[in-house]
Amino acid sequence: GTSVPTLPSDLQDLRATALEVLRGNDLGDVTRPSPTLYPHQWLWDSCFIAIGLRHVDPARAAAEVLSLLRGQWPNGMIPHVIFAEVDDFYHAGPQRWRCDRYVVTASGAQSTGITQPPMIAEAAVRVGEMLDPKARIDFYRALLPGLIRFHEFLHTERDPDDEGLVTLVHSWESGMDNTPPWMEATLPITPRRVKVLRRLGTAEALDALRRDAKEVPAEERLTSADLFTLYRVVRELRRSCYSFRNIRETEVPLVQDVAFNAILVRANDHLVEIAAEAGVKLPKRLTRSMRRCREAMEQLWSQSTYFSRDFRTGELLRHETVGGFLPLYAGVVPEERIDGLVKAMTSPRYWPRYGVASVPADDPAFLPRCYWQGPVWVNINWLLADGLERYGRLEAARELRANVLNLISSSGQMFEYYSPLDGTGAGSNSFSWTAALLLDLLA
Ligand code: 9YW
Question: In the chain, how many domains are there?
Fold first, then answer.
C-alpha cells in the first residue's frame, strides 16, 4: 500500500452513477442493497446507505435510519433483514425464519430472527451533522427509545453471563457470512453433512436452492454446502424460538465476534453523545455494560492482533481476518500496539495494492473474488480509514480512501466487493453501500 493512485478526472460521472444506483434501489423510505440479490432492507446496509445519502438528502437519510425501528422486536432486537413485500427471490426469506410465529415486530413487518452489526448510532450521528439543530434533536428523540432498547438487548440477552462481550448466534449476524473463523466454527455442527448432502441428491439439487447462483458466478459466492450449513443453523435457531437461553443448549456456534463488538463499543460512545444532545438520561445499567464491553475488548488481543472468541470454551478463534483491525475504529487500542497493527494492515499481505482485503493474501483460505474470503469491501475500508484517522495516522487514512476511490472508479461501477489483487469488481454491480460510501468519500 505505498503507491498513491492518481484521482480519475471524471468523478462527476462516477457520482452520477452512484446516485443512479441509489435511486434504482430506493423503495420509499428504505433502500435495498441491490436490485438482483437483495430485495429487502438490511440493518448495516441501511446505516452505510444513510451515511452517503446525507450528502444528497439529509431528511431522506434520517428516514432510512428511523425505518430500521419498524422491524424492532418486543425484546429490543433490531433484525438483520426487514422483509419488503416483494416477490421473494431471496434465498433466506420469511418462510425460512417463520418469526411471525414467535413475535410481532413494531410495524408488523416480517423479519429474520437475528441481528447485524450495530452501526445505527454511527449513522445517526453522521446524518445528524447535516441537519439543522432543531431537526437533529427531533431526529434523535424519535430514534432514541428504540436505539436504547436495541443496545440493552445486545448487552443483556446476548451477554447473559455478564462477561462484557456480546455473543452472536449466526455468521450472518457478523455481516461477514463466510469469513474463515466463522465457517470453521459452523461446519462442525453438520458432522454428517456429506452424507446428508448425498441423501438430498446431487450438488445441482442444492444449487437449485441457491437462487443467487444464477446472478453471480458460483465460485464468487458461498458454496452450496456452506449455505446448507448456514440454513441448518437457522433451523436450530427457529427451534430455539430465537431465545438465547435455548440457543446456548444447542450446537449452534456462539461467537464473541471481534468486529461486531468493536462496532458496538463505538456505537455506545455515539449513543452517549446522542442522548446528551437530546437531553435523555441513559439507564445506569446500560452505562455500566458499555464500560465493561470496552474493557473486555482487551481479552480478544493475543500477541499481534485481535481475534473473535468462542463463547462456550472461552478460546480465541485464531484465524486472522480484517476484523482484527476494527478495534482501531472502536478506539480501544493501547498506544504501544498501534504501530504494529497499522504496519500489519498496510503490509502487502492485507493491502497488496487495491485496499485492505478481508483475509490476508497468504492465508490458505484466501480467494480474491469470493465474498468474505479475500475481497476488499468498501464498508470495511471506510471503517478502517476512520480508525486510522482517530489514531492520527492521517497519511495512511488518506491513502486508503484514495485507494478505494480508485478501485471504484477504475471499474466505473458500484460493485459489491473487489479483488485486492487486480481490482476487478464482483457480486452485484449496483450495490447500494458502495454507491453511498463513494458519495461520502467524494464529499
Ligand atoms: C445475506 C446485504 C448483505 C450484507 C452482508 C453480506 C451479504 C448475504 O449481503 O449477506 O444473504 O444476508 O455478507 O454483510 O449485509 O448486502
Answer: 1
